[in-house]
Amino acid sequence: MNLVLFGPPAAGKGTQAKRLVSDRGLIQLSTGDMLRAAKASGSDLGKKVAKIMDEGQLVSDEVVIALIEDQLDSNPEAAGFIFDGFPRTVPQAEALDVALNKRGQKVDSVIRLCVEDESIITRISKRFEEQGRSDDNPATFKKRLDAYTENTAPLLPFYSAQGKLTEVNGMADIETVAGSIARVLDNHGNGKTEKPKSFWARLFGK
Ligand code: AMP
User: Counting atoms of ligand 1 from 1, which one is nearest the CA of 147?
Assistant: First the structure.
């Protein structure tokens, strides 16, 4: 079972991915976590991506695809993967399809965590205060949301056309959201596809 957890920054993807790791033995692949680790280690990759991340921009497709391929190679016996924060562009989604296909696998389900604008802003302000993650500061976070709208939201029709997209209410408490995700996975994706909502457009007047 390979699952893409989809949603804007601060939608709760990381929290839910961790639940699925313990509940279902899947491996969480968070490109954000991998890139932050590279940055913290001061490796060549870390130095290369630090400025891009601090500015709230997307790291190149080539870099993140290589990170994912590396993890797929390192975990050949995995029961499945949860892709968290990846793919973020259509070329990344296409590369993921190719990478999984090469290994006789596929993306089985894409779950979109739907969260209202106001709630995202509240969550991120709280996370910034609590964790001090530099790219959660209001100016950079706005750029990350712009990147989501411009580059990542187009993945919704991509996965919807494949009949893999299911929307889940991400506004509920953690347990309830986990329950909704579990029901989708137990049905192996219910094939329910919905039109992308335009709340980002409302927020940013686009
Ligand atoms: P995240 O923790 O998923 O919000 O990611 C933090 C930052 O890492 C993003 O703002 C990007 O700069 C970078 N990043 C993480 N995943 C990707 C991805 N799939 N494609 C491009 N950049 C990414």
Answer: 10
Residue type at 78 in one-letter notation: A
Three-state DSSP at 80 gives coil
For 157-206, what is each residue's pLDDT tens digit?
999 999 999 999 999 999 999 999 999 999 864 444 433 445 665 566 54
Strand-pairing partners, residue 94, are none
CA of 132 to the centre of ligand 1 (A): 17
Distance 202 CA to ligand 1 centre (A): 24
Closest CA to 70 of 40, 39, 45: 45
Asked, for residue 186, whether it belongs to a domain, the answer is yes
Q: Which residues of 129-138 are buried (b: 16+ CB within 10 A; e: fewer)?
A: eeeeeebbee
Ligand 1 atom with minimal separation from the 13 CA: 3
CA dist 206 and 117 (Å) reads 14
Structural domain of residue 9, as residue ranges? Answer: 3-26+79-203
Q: Looking at the whole model, is its pTM more than 0.85?
A: yes
Residue 49 lies in a domain: no
Catalytic residues: 13, 88, 127, 133, 144
Structure tokens at 102: 């090469």
Number of domains the chain contains: 1
The token pair that represents 182 in the structure block:
């579990």
